[in-house]
Amino acid sequence: MRLDKFLSHTGFGSRKEVKELLKKKLVQVNGQLEKEGKKVIDETNDRVSVNDQLVQYKKYVYYMLNKPQGVVSATEDREHRTVIDLIAEKDMVQGLFPVGRLDKDTTGLLLLTNNGDLAHQLLSPKKKVPKLYQASVSGIMTDEDCLIFSKGITISGNEACLPAKLKINKTDEKNNISEIELEIIEGKYHQVKRMVEAVGKKVTRLDRLSMGGINLDQKLKPGKYRELTQNEQDILGAD
């Protein structure tokens, strides 16, 4: 990896900012002063220091994002802003991508990483990773709906869903609305919306609260993100 790219990926700013560090003679590689950003280093074995402080290289990164509405869960899109566009340049690493997808109008917890193996584990239907959603619904959800969901429901396209846990937090018969939480263990296309539609109601707002035992940090405002703590990484089984 080029030295300037390495320093940018490890939190020392843009290529321009890294160039200034090199110019000021603050960067050493294996104890030797280095002024050329184009120098190729072995990021796992070479010892790089900035202002006499050793730089620790992270092979994988893990971010928690509070996804806002209007942003698509993709690495690139010609028409819309993506979740990758929300990541600052200093935090960008090669191969960063969202773990699964939230609809454009769906908000809440979205994990991003460059660890493909972990993403596969979290998204594999065989692993039955729980995902908890909170939704506003047009229509009155009932105890019968809870029972139907708990047994597994068939949705549009004749797709069978695995058993899910529905919790009705509030109903307002006058305005014909419900507030619910729904935990599913798979990730079919528009699954929560289609499940609710299968019992004759409609989701009007959808937020993801948790995934794989990781809860959305309530301090994160929409569009903001942070690195997962070591404890959160351990919960996910991250390297």
From TrEMBL:
<feature type="domain" description="RNA-binding S4">
    <location>
        <begin position="1"/>
        <end position="59"/>
    </location>
</feature>
<dbReference type="InterPro" id="IPR020103">
    <property type="entry name" value="PsdUridine_synth_cat_dom_sf"/>
</dbReference>
<dbReference type="Pfam" id="PF01479">
    <property type="entry name" value="S4"/>
</dbReference>
<dbReference type="InterPro" id="IPR002942">
    <property type="entry name" value="S4_RNA-bd"/>
</dbReference>
<dbReference type="GO" id="GO:0003723">
    <property type="term" value="F:RNA binding"/>
</dbReference>
<keyword id="KW-0694">RNA-binding</keyword>
<keyword id="KW-0413">Isomerase</keyword>
<dbReference type="InterPro" id="IPR042092">
    <property type="entry name" value="PsdUridine_s_RsuA/RluB/E/F_cat"/>
</dbReference>
<dbReference type="GO" id="GO:0000455">
    <property type="term" value="P:enzyme-directed rRNA pseudouridine synthesis"/>
</dbReference>
<dbReference type="InterPro" id="IPR050343">
    <property type="entry name" value="RsuA_PseudoU_synthase"/>
</dbReference>
<protein>
    <recommendedName>
        <fullName>Pseudouridine synthase</fullName>
        <ecNumber>5.4.99.-</ecNumber>
    </recommendedName>
</protein>
<dbReference type="InterPro" id="IPR036986">
    <property type="entry name" value="S4_RNA-bd_sf"/>
</dbReference>
<dbReference type="Pfam" id="PF00849">
    <property type="entry name" value="PseudoU_synth_2"/>
</dbReference>
<dbReference type="GO" id="GO:0016829">
    <property type="term" value="F:lyase activity"/>
</dbReference>
<dbReference type="GO" id="GO:0005829">
    <property type="term" value="C:cytosol"/>
</dbReference>
<keyword id="KW-0456">Lyase</keyword>
<comment type="similarity">
    <text>Belongs to the pseudouridine synthase RsuA family.</text>
</comment>
<dbReference type="InterPro" id="IPR018496">
    <property type="entry name" value="PsdUridine_synth_RsuA/RluB_CS"/>
</dbReference>
<dbReference type="InterPro" id="IPR006145">
    <property type="entry name" value="PsdUridine_synth_RsuA/RluA"/>
</dbReference>
<dbReference type="GO" id="GO:0120159">
    <property type="term" value="F:rRNA pseudouridine synthase activity"/>
</dbReference>
<dbReference type="InterPro" id="IPR020094">
    <property type="entry name" value="TruA/RsuA/RluB/E/F_N"/>
</dbReference>
<dbReference type="InterPro" id="IPR000748">
    <property type="entry name" value="PsdUridine_synth_RsuA/RluB/E/F"/>
</dbReference>
